[in-house]
Automatic annotation (TrEMBL):
Protein name: Vacuolar protein sorting-associated protein 41 homolog
Listed GO CC annotations: clathrin-coated vesicle; cytosol; early endosome membrane; Golgi apparatus; HOPS complex; late endosome membrane; lysosomal membrane
Organism: Gopherus agassizii
Family: Belongs to the VPS41 family.
Entry keywords, A to Z: Autophagy, Cytoplasm, Cytoplasmic vesicle, Endosome, Golgi apparatus, Lysosome, Membrane, Metal-binding, Protein transport, Transport, Zinc, Zinc-finger
SMART domains linked to this entry: CLH
Family annotation (SUPFAM superfamilies): WD40 repeat-like
Localization, UniProt: Cytoplasm, Cytosol; Early endosome membrane; Endosome membrane; Late endosome membrane
């Protein structure tokens, strides 16, 4: 599995664990770490080889494998371990095999000093036998190219062979004098090798050695605990020796630091120690795969013995390391192996790791999503397994999302988590009706139909009606509220409505007053389009949905005789509905139905009047009595707004009930202002209202009556003095006040009269000044306008004869009159002015009075 995908997936799993209940069986299982690698033995031809021989070395190419044995054989294998070619090199052990990047050329060295470099498809190119064992050989990575025909060998010294222009091989010594060469790795232009003293790196471009990394533990025999080398990339070398790991980076030296130094240098970027002896190294993204040789003390003999080798994944840190995973490998004959018997090779492109031992070859692979899902299912982590399958559904080959989901549902059911199992059915079962019906029957067998009811599909797909009826019957037997909820939520076409109606009716025979069943039956009748029966139940229950039902299904014909019931239930909503649909139920029909309920009749007619003052005009006479009986505060506004109510009838009713304010209004409206004023004074004894009434009527005789009535009543006189100043001359009132009469606040009233008078004088003077100033300004403006000249040219015509105003012959004499309105006439075309008024006016604009049409210019020539 891709590394980045695994990181994302691990984060998602953490979120799942924090937000949902774990489905693991125990806390121990939850804390158990998942292996990072999976293992299998390389079999087929390899099994046959290792039964008779022992593996000594192996090299991995992306296309094939090359295996060397202790009996001097080299086998070419495919990635499944099948033998494709066999080469007899020597009767003794093969020490190392090297391949170029193309996989077309191979270098082999053996314990008897033989070295061969040849093309797998082009024949032998080099064959030499040395007088000492040759431990290592490495061909140039680009050996296939003609200018890269180079390889190195190592015994007691490191030799470089180069092919000359005469097709001869020229050797040169790269290093000697520090013991046997134990390992060599060639990458790009860099060669790294290890001898008894440490690790060296040679730059093939400059032919300079750029570093020497000494080994840490010199107490270990280098032949028993050999150095492991691995290039991570062209500039990063990984060194493992004993228990020490170093990661070295080759860097370019700055020009200012060169002097006599090599152009490159090596920096150790990570360094740490491991618990066991290192037999092999390989990179895995930014981590390391380390093959370790392990010794342990036997419990029986209490002696040190060889244990199973370990393959660890380690994350290097600046000053230490973190173990990501660790696996003990059961390889054949591990009890007899030494550290030098194990090797680790890897295929860079596929993240495959080969653990080579004399009697066994094990292949370690990164676990893919199928392996990850297997592990999750084994640990009963179904939720995580399902999510992993969904994320990688295009890459997984072994598992199906549906199979994982069904296993998850069964697991939840076994644990008794029925609601969660039912909820997961929505996602897992999808649109498969067969799977849904199978799961429903399974829930029925365990008595948990209620659990799955909320999650049954209602659209796309739709299950058989029997499924839904079975669930409804389950609820009806034990949970009326749940049954009602399902009927409300489920569309009516999911089940056979008639069957469910009959079952509900049978239950109502046992409990006829059950409101839940009655409400549900009404909904069922609605689904079945038996709206009349549904409406009867809703009205009986006084249910709030009755108005919605009427509107939705246009049941106005069914409620003609149920208007009183609707009004009793909710008069506000009922009236609004009736008025909104008066085309379906007429006003006359509603009034007739409410005849025996005048209080409801008033509510209806009052709202009708508020909406339109004229629609119910024939009931305005009736409304007078209804307002007087049930709603006196709105009687006076009604009398004021209505133009259709009979005033005599209204006056009679108001006088009978002694409604003074209403009577006063009616008397004034009927023209009997004096009687109305008298009633205000005598019945209401309210001088302010009387004054206000007199102001509204604006009748001098009414003011006279008011003064006469108030002259012997000091409080009334005070009110008049304070308010009549702008309507009646206060002197008329003051002259009639009897001497010696004590009038409250007389001085204040007189002061107010004087102040009002002064205010009126000031207002008049102010208005006069404004008028004079405006008149003068307009006069000046008119004068300036009239003093301006008027352009007269050939385009102007006489408004009387319609001829050009100027003659065509400029030498002739002419006379033209031009008015301020810009109309022009020939002198002879204008009528002769009268002797009484010498002024002349434009015939078109102003023929009778002086105005802007007055002449301003007379042109003569």
């Amino acid at each position: 599995m891709d590394y980045h995908m695994r990181v994302v997936f691990s984060l998602l799993l953490k979120e799942i664990r924090s937000n949902e209940e774990s489905t693991d069986d125990s806390e121990e299982d939850e804390s158990e770490e998942e292996p990072k690698l999976k293992y299998e033995r390389l079999s087929n031809g390899v099994t046959e080889i290792l039964q008779k021989d022992a593996a000594s070395c192996m090299t991995v190419h992306e296309k094939f494998l090359a295996l060397g044995t202790h009996y001097g054989k080299v086998y070419l294998l495919d990635v499944q371990g099948n033998i494709t070619q066999k080469v007899d090199i020597s009767p003794v052990k093969i020490n190392q095999i090297s391949l170029d990047e193309s996989g077309e050329h191979m270098g082999i060295c053996s314990e008897d000093g033989k070295v061969q470099v040849f093309g797998l498809y082009s024949g032998e190119e080099f064959h030499e036998t040395f007088d000492c064992p040759i431990k290592i050989v490495a061909v140039h990575p680009q050996f296939v190219r003609s200018h890269c025909k180079q390889f190195v060998t190592g015994g007691k010294k490191l030799l470089l062979y180069e092919k000359t222009w005469m097709n001869r091989w020229k050797p040169s010594v790269l290093h000697e004098g520090e013991g046997n060469i134990r390992n060599v790795k060639w990458r790009g232009h860099l060669i790294a090798w290890a001898n008894n003293m440490g690790v060296k790196i040679l730059d093939m471009i400059s032919k300079q050695r750029i570093t020497n990394v000494p080994r840490d533990d010199i107490s270990l025999r280098p032949d028993m605990y050999p150095c492991s080398l691995c290039w991570k990339d062209n500039l990063t070398l990984i060194i493992g020796w004993g228990t020490s790991v170093k990661i070295c980076s080759v860097k370019e030296r700055h020009a200012s630091e060169m002097r006599d130094l090599p152009s490159r240098y090596v920096e150790i970027i990570f360094q740490f120690d491991t618990e066991f002896y290192i037999s092999g190294l390989a990179p895995l993204c930014d981590q390391l795969v380390v093959l370790s040789y392990v010794k342990e003390v036997s419990e029986k003999t209490e002696m040190e013995c060889c244990a199973r080798p370990r393959l660890d994944i380690i994350q290097p840190l600046p000053e230490s390391c973190e173990e990501i995973s660790s696996d003990a490998l059961t390889v054949r004959g591990f009890q007899e192996n030494e550290c030098r018997d194990y090797h680790l090779e890897h295929s860079e492109g596929e993240s495959l790791f080969y653990i080579i031992s004399p009697r066994d070859i094990v292949v370690a692979k990164e676990r893919d999503q199928d392996d990850h899902i297997d592990w999750l299912l084994e640990k009963k982590k179904y939720e995580e397994a399902l999510m992993a399958a969904e994320i990688s559904q295009k890459t997984i080959k072994k598992h199906r999302i549906l199979d994982i989901g069904l296993a998850y549902i069964n697991h939840l059911v076994e644990k008794g988590e029925y609601d969660l199992a039912a909820r997961k059915c929505q996602k897992i079962l999808g649109k498969s009706t067969e799977l849904w019906e199978f799961e429903v029957y399974k829930f029925k067998e365990i008595g948990q139909l209620k659990a799955i009811s909320r999650y049954l599909p209602r659209r796309d797909p739709i299950l058989k009606p029997l499924i839904y009826e079975m669930v409804l019957h389950e609820f009806l037997e034990s949970d009326y509220e749940g049954f009602a909820m399902l009927i409300k939520e489920w569309p009516g076409d999911l089940y056979n409505n008639a069957i469910i109606v009959q079952v509900v009716v049978d239950h109502l025979k046992k409990d006829p007053q059950n409101r839940t069943l009655l409400r549900t039956l009404a909904e069922l009748y609605t689904y079945d389009q038996r709206y009349g029966k549904a409406l009867e139940i809703y009205l009986t229950l006084r249910h709030k949905d009755v108005f919605q039902l009427i509107h939705k299904h246009n049941l106005f014909s069914s409620i003609r005789d149920k208007i009183v019931l609707l009004m009793d239930f909710d008069s506000e909503k009922a009236v609004d509905m009736l008025l909104d649909n008066e085309d379906k139920i007429s006003i006359d029909r509603v009034v007739e139905e409410l005849e025996n309920r005048p209080e409801l009749q008033h509510v209806y007619l009052h709202k009708l009047f508020k909406r339109d003052h004229h629609k119910g005009q024939k009931y305005h006479e009736k409304q007078i009595s209804l307002y007087a009986e049930y709603d006196r505060p709105n009687l006076l506004p009604f009398l004021r707004d209505s133009t259709h109510c009979p005033l005599e009838k209204a006056l009679e009713i108001c006088q009978q009930r002694n409604f003074v304010e209403e009577t006063v209004y009616l008397l004034s409206r009927m023209g009997n202002s004096r009687s109305a004023l008298k009633m205000i004074m005598e019945e209401l004894y309210d001088v302010d209202k009387a004054i206000e009434f007199a102001k509204e009527q604006d009748d001098g005789e009414l003011w006279e009556d008011l003064i006469l009535y108030s002259i012997d009543k000091p409080p009334f006189i005070t009110g008049l003095l304070n308010n009549i100043g702008t309507h009646v001359d206060p002197i008329l009132l003051i002259h009639r006040i009897k001497e010696g009469m004590e009038i409250p606040n007389l001085r204040d009233s007189l002061v107010k009269i004087l102040q009002d008078y002064n205010l009126q004088i000031l207002l008049r003077e102010g208005c006069k000044k404004i008028l004079v100033a405006d008149s003068l300004s307009l006069l000046k403006k008119m004068h300036r306008t009239q003093m301006k000249g008027v352009r007269v040219d050939e385009e102007n015509i006489c408004e009387s004869c319609l001829s050009p105003i100027l003659p065509s012959d400029a030498s002739k004499s002419f006379s033209v009159t031009v008015f301020h309105c810009r109309h022009m006439f020939h002198k002879e075309c204008l009528p002769i002015p009268s002797t009484m008024s010498p002024l002349q006016f434009c015939n078109i604009c102003s023929a009778k009075h002086r105005g802007p049409g007055c002449a301003i210019l007379e042109m003569k020539k």
